[in-house]
Amino acid sequence: MTLPSCKNWRKSSYSAANSDCVEVGRSAEGMIGVRDTKQAVNGPVLHFSTREWSDFLRAVRSQTS
């Protein structure tokens, strides 16, 4: 299976100044990609469907409220 290529990467607003952060991007197919900024070009990317990403965000937000 070939994974989609994500574009328009955005750095997390919770990122530290020393590049300890993650970036989130979206592919043309609608998949959400998450990567480590320090390894941006050569590092691995976690891929989520829109539904999986929504479920993940909901779970994280429920833990911080």
From TrEMBL:
Short name of one Pfam family: DUF397
Family annotation (InterPro entries): DUF397 (IPR007278)
Organism: Actinomadura fibrosa
Origin superkingdom: Bacteria
Protein name as annotated: DUF397 domain-containing protein
UniProt domain DUF397: residue ranges: 8-61
